[in-house]
Specification:
The chain is α/β, with parallel strands linked by helices. The protein contains 6 helices and 4 strands. Strands 1-2-3-4 form a 4-stranded parallel sheet, with helices on both faces.
Length: about 170
Amino acid sequence: MRNYGGYDGPDSWLRENCLGTEAKADYFIGHSIGASSALSYFEGNPESKFILFNPLIKKRNILDLIFRWMRFLLEERIEWIRIVPVRNWISGFGKIWKLLKIDVLAEMEKIPKGNLIVLRGKNDRFFCDEESAKIIKRKNIRLIEVEAGHDWNKNVKEAADKLIFF
């Protein structure tokens, strides 16, 4: 989990299976479409806490998602070193396809309210935008907004650390 501050656990993009219930943990953290992967662990971990950063709340078609991803990469100026290695791209597309089929809101509603927190980058205009924030609030899911865009940064890590360690 090199891009997320050294948390111990599986990285959806660098392991064979992006879905599952085989891992046991006190906390599951997922970023963007990786939040869908984290949610897939709930069944085997009903007492665990879930921290989702900028989850894909709204269903969008694949072309819209590709366009948003390209804008995100350009506008937030993501370092190439932080992007999933090219050798993982082919399997990554299959994983993305599986993860996009997950109804994020329906899965979030299965988790007890006290075990679910959504972190949102205040400046995320690409995936977890203002409209998504309103949906989260309407569902009475705890939402914490941090100074960030869509990409994980030190502010997100600090917020996640406070939730886990304090």
